[in-house]
């Protein structure tokens, strides 16, 4: 059984975002209208939608499957230290997730998509396959294949099962474009690195620790001395 204390902070943060945002919409359906992204909202300076629009989705079995693949491939990325240059693997993964608002904006402009949630797993799978060794193999229902082939098969199956209506190819293309641009065009901004370093000082796991929930009633009280 997975324990929270064993999950790296960056993976835990991604899982929290991918689960809490959908739960907010589930608890208050009217709130969903304030979480999805559309280009018209930018004119109203509702910039938070660039973040919530990446993760918002319905609460269903599909969400649980996405969370599983997000966890699995985020852990693989960290385990195999998948990095592009001198930037640490953890920082690179955070920046990869952070910039997902870019394909969300492009997809909304081209096809009117309002969320990037269904694209996150395939984006992580392709990102991992681009950076891991070509000798690495993954098991796909008993068939052993390379990580790159695994990402292609996953993309095709998802597209077919959804009757050609799936937009997961945005995640696939985004991962390819991100790795190429990072290798040849731009680096991770220093201001972003500093921001993440400060956020890392916040221990997410403490929020779930029994000792961090507060003191029990009566704790810390000193007994009064009798006169």
Automatic annotation (TrEMBL):
One cellular component term from this protein's GO annotations in UniProt: endoplasmic reticulum membrane
Ubl conjugation in keyword set: no
Residues annotated as transmembrane: 7-27, 47-71, 136-157, 169-193
A UniProt-annotated Pfam family: DER1
Places the protein is found: Endoplasmic reticulum membrane
Membrane topology according to the record: Multi-pass membrane protein
InterPro entries: DER1
Highest taxon above the source species: Eukaryota
Keyword entries, A-Z: Endoplasmic reticulum, Membrane, Transmembrane, Transmembrane helix
Major subcellular location class: endoplasmic reticulum
Record flagged with keyword Nuclease: no
Protein's job: May be involved in the degradation of misfolded endoplasmic reticulum (ER) luminal proteins.
Protein family according to the UniProt entry: Belongs to the derlin family.
Name of this chain's protein: Derlin
Organism of origin: Vavraia culicis (isolate floridensis) (Microsporidian parasite)
């Amino acid at each position: 059984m997975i324990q929270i204390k064993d999950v790296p902070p960056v993976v835990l943060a991604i899982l929290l975002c991918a689960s809490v945002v959908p739960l907010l919409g589930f608890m208050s359906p009217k709130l969903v209208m304030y979480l999805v992204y559309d280009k018209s909202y930018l004119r109203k300076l509702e910039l938070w939608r660039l973040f919530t629009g990446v993760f918002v989705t319905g609460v269903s079995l599909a969400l649980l499957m996405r969370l599983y693949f997000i966890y699995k491939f985020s852990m693989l990325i960290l385990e195999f230290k998948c990095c592009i240059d001198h930037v640490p693997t953890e920082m690179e993964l955070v920046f990869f997730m952070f910039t997902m608002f870019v394909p969300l904006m492009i997809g909304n402009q081209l096809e009117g998509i309002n969320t990037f949630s269904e694209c996150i797993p395939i984006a992580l799978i392709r990102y991992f396959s681009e950076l891991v060794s070509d000798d690495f193999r993954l098991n796909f229902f008993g068939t052993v294949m390379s990580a790159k082939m695994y990402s292609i098969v996953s993309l095709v199956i998802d597209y077919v099962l959804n009757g050609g209506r799936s937009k997961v190819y945005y995640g696939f293309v985004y991962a390819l474009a991100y790795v190429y641009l990072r290798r040849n065009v731009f680096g991770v901004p220093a201001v972003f690195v500093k921001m993440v370093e400060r956020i890392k000082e916040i221990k997410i796991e403490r929020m779930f620790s029994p000792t961090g929930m507060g003191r029990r009633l009566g704790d810390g009280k000193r007994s009064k001395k009798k006169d």
